Amino acid sequence: MSSGGGSDKSGSGGGGGGGAVKTPSDFLKSIRGRPVVVKLNSGVDYRGILACLDGYMNIAMEQTEEYVNVLYISTSKRTLTDGS
Questions:
Q1: Separation of alpha carbons 84 and 79, rounded Å
Q2: I want to staple 45 with a disulfide (CB 3.0 to 4.6 A). Which of 59, 67, 68, 74 is the partner?
Q3: What letter does residue 79 receive in the DSSP assignment?
Q4: With contact defined as beta carbons under 8 Å apart, do 47 and 35 qualify?
Q5: What pLDDT, in 10s, does the model give residues 2-60?
Q6: 24: part of which helix (H) or strand (E)?
Q7: Is 64 within 8 Å of 44 (Cβ atoms)?
């Protein structure tokens, strides 16, 4: 008796390949020890080697560099009294 389920016939088309579905936790475990980029909401990037992480997304990185991103550069309007 087969438990067929038809998971490979779902037609979802995403992911490519016939392997099992990976959870975010599986992905994070698979990249431990590899170079990563962590981007914070503040716009700061940290680039380094992912050393470890826990279920709360606390991470430890090695050989890390911090990159502060410039979001934009703008000029202000000049008035005639500002000079040229």
A1: 9
A2: 67
A3: P
A4: yes
A5: 444 444 444 444 455 556 788 888 888 899 999 999 999 888 999 999 999 888 889 99
A6: helix 24-30
A7: no
